C-alpha cells in the first residue's frame, strides 16, 4: 500500500521558502511554491511551482487544490488571499497573526494590549498628528515609519522634535504612518518561537543582531547577555505565540535598553533571518520547525549543539567567497538568485564553534 506523503504549499518563493522546502524534503514532504517571479530561490528546490500574482484566484485555487496545507514565507501576502485559500485548505499561521503583523500600528497595539512593552508610539495621519505626538511624548528623537510594506529600513525617516512635521510627513508618501520614540538601545536581539497544534513550543535565542545600513549583518548565539534579559525575551515570545494561538514559527525583534528593559520592535509571522544559523547549529532548524508545525507534526528540540555566528551575504559579498570556502567551521548557503543587486540578500554563512569555548 502506498503511504500518503504530505504536500505543503508555500506562498512566496524567496530564500525563506527555499530553506523551508529543503527542510521539508528531508522529512519526505513535498513542497509546491506560489509566487510572482520565475526562476526564484524556492522554485529551484520545490517539487512544483506556480507563477502567479497573489490576487489571481484561479491560479491560487489550483495551487491550493494541489496541496494538503498552506503556509507563507513572506508577510506581505494580502490577507484576503489567505482568507480565500483558507476556504479551500488550512493555512498556518492563520490570517489573524498575518493581519496584526502587516501593519506597524496594529502590531504595536496588539503587543501592548497583551502586556509586551514597545517604545512609545503614536499613529500619524497628518503633519499636525506629528506635532501633537511630539508634544505628548516629549522626547528629542523619533523614527517616522510607513505602517505597511517596510523592510530593511525602507519607509523610515528620522524625525527630531525640532524638525518640520510637514517635511517629515511628506518624505514617506503615505497617509498612514507611525511615529516611534527612538530607542537609545544597548543592543538588538531577537527570539524565534515554533509552536505546534498541541500548543507545545520551542524557542531559539536570544540572538544578538547587528545591522549595517538597516540590513541584518550578523546574528550571534549564544548572545552575551544578562540571563534575565534572555528569560524576559523568551517569555515575551511565548506570551505572544500563546495569545495568537500560533501554529508555525514567528520571530520577535527586540531592543535591549541601557537600563535593561526589553522593548519589542517587530513581529515576523514566519521564519526569521536571525535564525538561519539553526540549520547548522541545531539538530532541528527553524525551517524544519516551520514545516513540522504547519504540517501537524510535533515541534522538535531547539537546543543548539554549537555556538554560531551567521553573516548575511549582501549584494557583491557573493563575489568574494574564497575566504568562506577556506574558513574552518564555515557553512555556506547561497540562494541561487540570478541578479546581484546592492542590498539584496544573496546568501549567508554560518561559522560554527564548539559551544563550551564560547565565541572569540
Ligand atoms: N524606534 C526605534 N528606535 C531605534 N532604532 C530603531 C527604531 N525602529 C527601528 N530602528 C532601527 O531600524 C531597524 C529597522 O527597523 P524595523 O522597525 O525593524 O523595520 P524593518 O526591519 O521592517 O525595516 C531596526 O532593526 C533598528 O536598528
Ligand atoms: Mg526589523
Summarize the topology:
Blueprint: E1 7-11, H1 15-26, E2 30-35, E3 48-51, H2 57-65, E4 69-72, H3 79-86, H4 95-102, H5 104-113, E5 121-124, H6 127-137, E6 141-146, E7 156-160, H7 165-171, E8 177-181, E9 185-195, E10 201-212, E11 215-221, H8 227-244, E12 248-257, E13 262-268, H9 278-281, H10 286-294, E14 306-314, H11 322-326, E15 330-334, E16 345-354
Parallel strand pairs: 1-2, 1-4, 2-3
Antiparallel strand pairs: 5-8, 6-7, 6-8, 9-10, 9-12, 10-11, 11-14, 12-13, 14-16, 15-16
Helix pairs in contact: 1-10, 3-4, 4-5, 6-7
The structure holds adenosine-5'-diphosphate and magnesium ion (MG).
The site of adenosine-5'-diphosphate has 15 residues, from strand 13.
Question: Could you characterize what this model shows?
Answer:
It contains eleven helices and 16 strands. It has three domains: 7-91, 3-Layer(aba) Sandwich (Rossmann fold); 120-181, 2-Layer Sandwich (Dna Ligase, domain 1), CATH 3.30.1490.20; 185-354, D-amino Acid Aminotransferase, Chain A, domain 1, CATH 3.30.470. The protein is an alpha+beta fold and 360 residues long. Strand 12 and strand 13 (262-268) form a beta hairpin. The chain starts with 6 loop residues before the first strand and ends in a 6-residue tail after the last strand. It is globular. Helix content is 28%, strand content 31%. Strands 13-12-9-10-11-14-16-15 form an eight-stranded antiparallel beta sheet. The chain has a four-stranded parallel beta sheet with strand order 3-2-1-4, with helices on both faces. The structure holds adenosine-5'-diphosphate and magnesium ion.
